[in-house]
Design goal:
The chain has 140 residues and is an alpha+beta fold. The chain contains 4 helices and 5 strands. The chain has a 5-stranded mixed sheet with strand order 1-5-4-3-2. Strand 2 and strand 3 form a beta hairpin. The longest helix is centred in the N-terminal third of the chain and has 17 residues. The radius of gyration is 15 Å and the shape is globular.
């Protein structure tokens, strides 16, 4: 099972990097346990922070991220992929530049994934939400 989990996680990260949002969404179960660890009220400047439950929502999430950032300035990197059975934790650093404000930001992240039958059933990401919100709400 560990090798299946690692294979699915690596494929997910590859598709996310390529920016093929529909193919990325194909790797998610219906429904998916989705969590972006932000304050419950979210933030008005960060529209992609909302509940998601299916492939169409997942694709929309990644499209929204892309629409709000300068793709060619993305420097996000993965430092570790830790796998234990069906669970995986991806550790790394988000490096983005906001399209509207041109403000760059960096945030460490941890992504907890669960894989079953080759599909992602859990996607929980933890990041520095204050840094992201500040970059998106800055005035150009």
């Amino acid at each position: 099972m560990t090798s299946d989990t690692r294979t699915t996680v690596e494929e997910l990260l590859r598709r996310m990097t390529e920016g093929d949002h529909d193919r990325t969404a194909e790797l998610f179960a219906e429904p998916v346990d989705w969590l972006l660890a932000w304050p419950a009220e979210g933030h008005p400047e960060v529209p992609w922070i909302r509940p998601r439950d299916g492939r169409a929502d997942v694709a929309d999430h990644f499209r929204s991220l892309e629409a709000h950032h300068v793709t060619e300035l993305n420097g996000t990197s993965v430092s570790h992929i830790l796998v234990d059975g069906a669970d995986a934790v991806v550790l790394g650093e988000i490096v983005q530049t906001v399209r509207s404000t041109r403000v760059a930001y960096t945030s460490p992240f941890a992504l907890h994934l669960t894989v079953a039958d080759g599909l992602v059933t859990r996607y929980h990401i933890y990041e520095d939400s204050l840094t992201v919100a500040r970059a998106l709400s800055a005035r150009p």
